[in-house]
Specification:
Helix 1 runs antiparallel to helix 2, helix 1 packs across helix 5 and helix 3 crosses helix 6. It contains 6 helices and no strands. The structure holds fe (ii) ion (FE2) (2 copies). One fe (ii) ion (FE2) binds next to helix 2, helix 3 and helix 4.
């Protein structure tokens, strides 16, 4: 397995569920609700799994390769985007299912998620393949699959401060390295 493949598979599933929503008659509000609820829960779980497993590993690999600034910027962007996606999902819940406003809110969530996936695929996933070998990507794929399986019923959506997130993850890396390695310090933010 490879964590970058699992993330791509999840992205495909998200695109598939948005496409399914577009093909359901707007009068079928029960079906729209069921599929949206599944998609919303999956979007939250996927972002959380990336924040727990993928982005800490990207930071670690980039710092080890003396590319701290690049992976820090990619991680800051990702956490910012994840917050936007969470907020867009929350907005959908404020509208009655099947109304024009509900469709507009779903479209906004689709746009925020599409933009984020494209950037994540082009930057974070690409860099991670360049920075790490297959054994590490397999190990992380197991952790990612386990996280999603354990939390299949959903996670609590919590917005995170991007700078605070990167600082906290780098602190954990420093602690794990017992101060023997130079670790990123997010100087430019
Ligand atoms: Fe993401
Ligand atoms: Fe993703």
């Amino acid at each position: 397995m490879d964590i970058t493949e699992l993330i791509l598979d999840d992205h495909h599933e998200q695109r598939r569920l948005f496409a399914i929503l577009e093909q359901i008659d707007r009068a079928e509000t029960g079906v729209l609700s069921a599929i949206w609820d599944r998609l919303a829960a999956f979007l939250e779980l996927h972002a959380q799994a990336e924040e727990e497993i993928f982005y800490p590993a990207l930071l670690q690999a980039g710092i080890a390769a003396r590319r701290a600034a690049g992976v820090e910027d990619e991680t800051l962007d990702a956490i910012h985007d994840h917050n936007e996606i969470r907020d867009a999902i929350a907005e959908v819940a404020r509208h009655q299912v099947g109304t024009d406003d509900w469709y507009a809110a779903v479209a906004a969530a689709n746009l925020a998620n599409s933009d984020h996936m494209a950037e994540e695929e082009r930057e974070g996933l690409t860099d991670f393949r360049r920075l790490t070998g297959l054994p590490r990507r397999h190990q992380l794929a197991v952790a990612f699959a386990a996280y999603e399986a354990r939390n299949y019923a959903g996670v609590q959506p919590v917005d995170k401060d991007p700078v605070g997130y990167v600082r906290a993850e780098e602190k954990k890396l420093r602690t794990a390295a017992s101060g023997s390695l130079s670790v990123g310090t997010l100087k430019r933010h």
